[in-house]
Specification:
With 428 residues, this protein is of the alpha/beta class. It folds into 3 domains: 156 residues, Distorted Sandwich (Spo0b-associated Gtp-binding Protein, Chain: A); 169 residues, P-loop containing nucleotide triphosphate hydrolases (Rossmann fold), CATH 3.40.50; 75 residues, GMP Synthetase, Chain A, domain 3 (2-Layer Sandwich), CATH 3.30.300.350. Helix content is 19%, strand content 23%. Bound molecules: guanosine-5'-triphosphate and magnesium ion. The site of guanosine-5'-triphosphate has 24 residues, from helix 2.
Length: 428
Amino acid sequence: MFADRAKIVIKSGNGGDGHISFRREKFVAAGGPDGGDGGKGGDIIFVVDDGLNTLIDFKHKTKYVAGNGEPGGKRRCHGANADDLIIRVPEGTVIKELQSEKVIADMSGDHRREIILRGGKGGTGNMHYATSTMQVPKYAKPGQPGKELQVLLELKVIADVGLVGYPNAGKSTLISAVSNARPRIADYPFTTLTPNLGVIDMGDGSSFIMADIPGLIEGAAEGAGLGHYFLRHIERTKMLLHVVDAAGTEGRDPVNDLKVMMDELRRYDDRLLEKPMLIAANKTDILDPSADDPVARIQEAYPDIRVLPISAFTHSGTDELRKAIWEVIRDMPREVRVFEKEYDVEYNDDANLPYTVTKEETKDGEKYVVEGPRIEKMLGYTNLDTEKGFDFFQKFLKEAGILDQLEALGIKEGDTVRMYGHEFDYYK
Ligand SMILES: Nc1nc2c(ncn2[C@@H]2O[C@H](COP(=O)(O)OP(=O)(O)OP(=O)(O)O)[C@@H](O)[C@H]2O)c(=O)[nH]1
Ligand SMILES: [Mg+2]
């Protein structure tokens, strides 16, 4: 089976919390603060592994979680950083955010090792907050949370030649005639449901790879049928080989079939049309001798593309076709098309935790209420009874833009602000 797409969940580790503690020494009533910093959470790192060529492993294991940093400890003890989690993928794996399908990273070319999610930073321990005026800091910073993300992994088949054509045109029959691939073949449309790769041996030690994809129909680029889903497999091929039913066994005209295919390619990505092309006019073993020669008509309609008459069934013309393909691609470097990053991971650091600022009417006048997990978290870590702690909190309110929001709601000096049971008078 060809496992070329997998959905997985990845999560980087949380940072360890900073610690709050005080030195205990004989004969010293209250020593200085000695709470250490928390360790960093593990990153999620993707690495290209040349020994892999499918995404099959990701069908079995779908959740990848890096470890959390350890909290800081007493006696300035730094919590241990967690190990990064390394995820090995085949070259050509594109990592996308699941919902938007936007590219986070393309593991191709020079991109062999990418940090996809960074672990949360450890929080600073209270040992950093002692000053001459504030000797008993009862606050430390919490560690930053890690980030969880659902991602889609897609492996782009990097074949040299991509076969395109209507269902039943004979693509699978052709690849089995010229390569080691043994796909299913049947005379009903959409026999091929996943791409097949075949290696074609040129006999002199060289070889190339052909990709057989499910048939395309009109509207394929917009998602009709299975086709568009597989067009991405031919985005990086060196050339395209059109396979057309020259005998028109299904009542269609081969020249029109080719026109539809060209339109679908253009709609999907017009760069596909810039690739070198050949046309295999297939099923020549059953041409109607009394009708106009369809091979000549195709050549007339596409004068710039070489048309080769073949029968994938009897193998007539397939050797010439193999050679014609080789002539086109032998000196072409393999195209490494690296997809640009489109998605920036947003981290739910403290800065991203939500809060609300509202105004409340009471019988004593107006009160301002600030609420939200971020506020609660900061309050939990801050001792507001101390001057340093209060300054620390003030600074946080300012940096988080909360003071600006209070001003915007019309707060005046002396007004009351309430946050989780604490009430303050507002002064600039
Ligand atoms: N007479 C004749 N029949 C052929 C030839 N090539 C393919 N066929 C028949 O056409 C039918 C479809 O062939 P496939 O190779 O499965 O076609 P396909 O293009 O892979 O079709 P999808 O996978 O559905 O896109 C089968 O019954 C084949 O035996 C040929 O050269 N001559
Ligand atoms: Mg097929």
